[in-house]
Amino acid sequence: VQLVESGGGLVQPGGSLRLSCAASGDTLDLYAINWFRQAPGKEREGVSCIASLHGTTHYAESVQGRFTISRDNAKNTVYLQMNSLKPEDTAVYFCAADWGPVCRAGFPLDLWSWGQGIQVTVSS
Questions:
Q1: In this predicted model, what pLDDT tens digit does every residue of 79-115 receive, in sequence order?
Q2: Which helix (H) or strand (E) holds 49?
Q3: pLDDT per residue over 12-63, tens digit each?
Q4: How far, rounded to the nearest angstrom, does the alpha carbon of residue 92 sit from its chain's CA centroid?
Q5: Which pLDDT does position 1 carry in this prediction?
Q6: Are strands 57-59 and 2-6 parallel, antiparallel or unpaired?
Q7: Strand order in the sheet with 2-6
Q8: Distance in angstroms (rounded) separating the CA atoms of residues 59 and 6
């Protein structure tokens, strides 16, 4: 499956963005989809995951209550709604498909397919 992120950009602190992860080449609803981010000089970290089965969601503690992951299987797309954004949310955001339908604990990096990433900048 090929993944393409969109929806990034520059936003002021407290603002919102919605990222999209569009898939082609395969049916997205067969896989758990993760969002990761990587800030300059920092390791890539898991942000959120949505399972294929039952749409179970998981969030990193740093975004819990502010970010919401969802999927529209008819559009073969997964979304990440980001509210109350903070400067520390600034990073390149990636979506990635896992090998199976469930979210694995700890946001492992050995995933099947990655998007190219998209920049999110939170600054006044």
A1: 999 999 999 999 999 999 999 999 999 999 999 999 9
A2: strand 45-50
A3: 999 999 999 999 888 888 899 999 999 999 999 999 999 997 889 999 999 9
A4: 10
A5: 86
A6: unpaired
A7: 2-6, 17-24, 77-82, 67-72
A8: 20
15, with CB counted inside 10 A (0-12, 13-18, 19+), is: middle
What are φ and ψ of residue 77, in 5° steps? Answer: -140, 145
Report residue 45 as tokens. Answer: 């970290």
Amino acid identity of residue 59, one-letter, is: Y
**46 with 60: CB under 8 angstroms?**
yes
Token duo for residue 23: 């898939």
What digits encode the pLDDT tens for the residues 64-88?
999 999 999 889 999 999 999 999 9
Helix (H) or strand (E) holding 123: none
